[in-house]
Every structure is written in C-alpha cells, then in structure tokens.
C-alpha cells in the first residue's frame, strides 16, 4: 500500500493574501486524496541534524531569527515566513526522511509526501521560490549517508528547474539528478550543458507551449538514463505546475501526461528494484493541482498492487 505522509503544520505556513503558494494548495491536495486507500502517517518534525545534512547552521539560524511573532517576514523576494513556517518546513523535511526510512525498510514500495512549503529551489544557504529547506535533497543525503546506499536518483518534473537540488547534489557522485522544466523561466538555471561535477546531472529544458507528447518523449529518455544508473532509491520532485491551466508557467500538460510520466518513472524504478518516494513541489491552479495529484498517486497505488 502507498504511504501518505502529511501533518497539520502544513496549514500553519501562512503567506500573504494572493500569494500563489497558499494554504489552499495543501487543502486541495488532501481533498483530492480523500477516500483513497492509502496508509496515512503523520510526518514527524525533523531535528536540526537532518536539516544540517544540506544546509549550514548559519542558514538555520537565519531562518530562526527571521521568524516573526505575527504577520510575515521575507527570506527573499517571494519566500515568506509566518509564525508557523519553521514548524511546517521541519515537518516537510521529516516527512521525506520518514518516507525514505519506511520504503527502505520494506514497509511499502512507495510513498507520497503531501506537505508545504515546497523545497526544490532552496540552495545550500539561500531560500528561493517559496522554498525554505530542500527536503528532497535532504532525503537523498539521508539515504546515502544514513542508510549507506550507493546510488540514488532524484527526478524532477516541476515546471521550474530545481536549482536548489542541483546545487546541493552538484558534487555528489552517488546521486543522479534529472529534470524537465520550462526554459527560459524562473529561476533561470537548468540548461542542457549543466551536467554536474561527475556528469550525473541531466537537464532537459522545454520551450514554452510544450505539450504532453514531447514531454513524454523527454521522460522516456530520462528513464533510460535511470535504468542505466540502477538506483537503489528513486526520489521524485512532483510539481504539477506544468499543467496547461497553471498560472505561473506556459507548458501544456494535462492529467494524462502526469499519469504517463509517473508510470514511466515507476516502471523504471521497479526494473531496478528501487522503492519510490514522491514529494509535493509546485502546482498553483487548485483544481488542476488536485486532479493531477490524484492521477499521480493513483499510479503509485497501482504499483503496489
């Protein structure tokens, strides 16, 4: 059975009115998953040691200092902190780490972590793009250093390039990072020539307007790379803002494309006997987000059958 990790603290990270990364996103995701046959678990709060796998103590201290008693403060031009933001970000990291532990222990073949804020834009010591801690990179490093894995794959289909994940894994020879994303677009990284210190990064930039067929073709190529890598764990940055209805970008995918891409990823992981942990990233049209998440998790559930 697919594991679902979430926590009420995700509702306590409150952004200003009209901000796209809003509480309603998590409400839409959980409403879409309501009634599905999932093993629902509470995401624990990550201790400092987990966060410090990827972020320096000085950055964690900065987040603590900037945390407001009321209202909002800003970590960058579009990344806000409210009084509940640090707890939410800690539970987001803790959910990913708990999911990694569970699937590697054989408790389930896959898991989905439904938390916010997202994380894949956070660089080593820099908040960006609504993100506070890079939960998926921390999960990858936990798998490598705590569990002693030799090869992990991190796959990102968010419409925005996961610059933070790339930054944190650039020098890590045990981690394959592969991404499709609209380019040029925020944050401006993700060119095909960005290949990592060990050639273990694969960026597939897509032009505005790219629909499902080219996207699926790109993911067939990425999954061939995954099969050659033979990972022992697959982590997915699951952003759903490549949907045609999303207001922050201009790709033209739909729920069927997310289904097909998720199935490719799961098939590749199964061929490598690798469990999968999927982590919510972007997606800002609430209706499209809910439908797309449900389609994604349905494929995860099929893989457990």
UniProtKB/TrEMBL annotation:
Q: Which CDD domains match?
A: HDAC_classII_2
Cited SUPFAM superfamilies: Arginase/deacetylase
Domain Histone deacetylase intervals: 19-300
Any one of the GO BP annotations: epigenetic regulation of gene expression
Which parts of the chain span the membrane according to its record?
A: none
User: Which GO molecular function, any one, fits this protein according to its record?
Assistant: histone deacetylase activity
UniProt lists the family membership as follows:
Belongs to the histone deacetylase family.
- Protein name as it appears in the record: Acetoin utilization protein
- Species in which this protein is naturally found: Paracoccus yeei
């Amino acid at each position: 059975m697919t594991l679902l990790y979430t926590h009420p603290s995700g509702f306590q990270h409150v952004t200003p009115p009209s901000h796209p990364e809003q509480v309603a996103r998590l409400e839409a995701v959980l409403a879409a998953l309501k009634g599905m046959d999932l093993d629902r678990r509470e995401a624990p709060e990550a201790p400092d040691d987990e966060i410090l796998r990827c972020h320096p103590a000085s950055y964690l201290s900065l987040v603590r200092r900037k945390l407001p008693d009321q209202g909002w403060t800003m970590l960058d031009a579009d990344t806000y902190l409210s009084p509940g933001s640090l707890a939410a970000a800690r539970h987001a990291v803790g959910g990913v780490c708990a999911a990694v532990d569970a699937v590697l222990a054989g408790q389930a073949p896959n898991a989905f972590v439904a938390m916010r804020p997202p994380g894949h834009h956070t660089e080593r010591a820099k908040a960006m793009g609504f993100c506070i801690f890079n939960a998926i990179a921390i999960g990858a490093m936990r798998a490598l250093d705590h569990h002693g894995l030799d090869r992990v794959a991190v796959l990102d289909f968010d419409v925005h390039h996961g610059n933070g994940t790339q930054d944190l894994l650039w020098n890590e020879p045990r981690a394959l990072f592969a991404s499709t994303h609209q380019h040029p677009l925020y944050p401006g990284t993700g060119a095909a020539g960005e290949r990592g210190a060990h050639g273990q990064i694969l960026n597939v930039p897509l032009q505005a307007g790219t629909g499902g067929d080219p996207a699926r073709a790109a993911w067939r190529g990425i999954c061939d790379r995954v099969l050659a890598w033979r990972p022992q764990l697959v982590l997915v940055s699951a952003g759903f803002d490549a949907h045609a209805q999303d207001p922050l970008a201009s790709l033209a995918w739909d729920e069927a494309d997310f289904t097909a891409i998720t199935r490719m990823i799961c098939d590749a992981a199964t061929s490598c006997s690798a469990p999968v942990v999927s982590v919510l990233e972007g997606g800002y049209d609430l209706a499209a987000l809910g439908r797309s998440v449900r389609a994604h998790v349905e494929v995860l559930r099929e893989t457990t059958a």
